[in-house]
Amino acid sequence: MKQQMPRLIVLVFGAFLLFQFFVPHESSERAYEFLLDWILIIGVFALAVGIWSLFHVHVDKIRTRKVGWKYSYVTLVGFVSMIMFGLTAQNGQEWGWFFPFLVSVILTVLMVVQALSSKGRAPTYLGLAGLFTLVAILIANFDNDWSFYFQTAVPLRAYLFRSTFDNVLVSLHATMFSLLAFFIASAAYRAFRARNVMATLLLLAALIVMSRFNPYLAPVFGEYVAKLSNWLMNVPNMAAQRAIIMGVGLGMVATALKVILGIERNYMGRG
């Protein structure tokens, strides 16, 4: 029953959405709109599953002392801090006891992690987690310089959340893409080496397209290079891109049919 029920649900809803697209009707469109609203509910459950998965993965990494396990503490501290920044905001100009509250919450989470990852001292860590939780609750109840906001976007415009997002997260993304540039350059070097006819054609095409943006060649060969570059981008390149898109589309249709018909069952954790 645990196997048949998910397959039956996937079959019914997958077949309904497939036929609704090709045979639209007022009743089926209302049902389709109703089902789309479920995406919000499913998204909330998926968020909860994602949070639990992140916590579980990093606790397991700390418990088994895998490579880079110390960075899991940084991930968990950043995760808890961003949640608190996204749920709280100042009531005036002062933050009051917000930062002791934040430290208490972080220490509570770290003590729970230590309790889950240690074998003989779990009661001690759980006791400390309860103590830090009590401190956080007392600060939240008696400090009026800041408040929780669960149903408004006020915290998302607050200084701590915006500053952390702009100065930390955006900088980390820029660093990651900067590192990717070196990997792309290395991959391009290996791909463009003229070892055979196809690699030589690829190298020549890349040189022509890149030469179009060379300011020193523009006065001499600018017109010819631009025409040849446009032809390469609009004819062979566009044909290859459309072929790839069509292949991906056919693959998606085939995979969707396999899921609807119960042939593909990896989403249930088994093949």
Report on the structure:
It is a single chain. With 271 residues, the protein is mainly α. 77% of the residues lie in helices and 2% in strands. Helix 2 (26-63) crosses helix 3 and helix 4 runs antiparallel to helix 5 (122-142). It is extended, with a radius of gyration of 28 Å. The model has no long low-confidence stretch (mean pLDDT 86).
Attribute tags:
271 residues; mainly alpha; two-stranded antiparallel ribbon; 2 strands
- Provide a count of the helices: 8
Biggest beta sheet attributes: 2 strands, antiparallel
Radius of gyration: 28 Å
List segments where confidence is low: pLDDT < 50 over at least 5 consecutive residues.
Answer: none
How much helical structure, as a percent, in the residues? over 70%
* Relative strand content: under 5%
Please outline what is shown here:
The protein is mainly α.
Write the SSE topology.
Blueprint lengths: L3 H19 L3 H38 L6 H18 E3 L7 H20 L4 H21 L3 E3 L10 H34 L4 H15 L6 H43 L11
Antiparallel strand pairs: 1-2
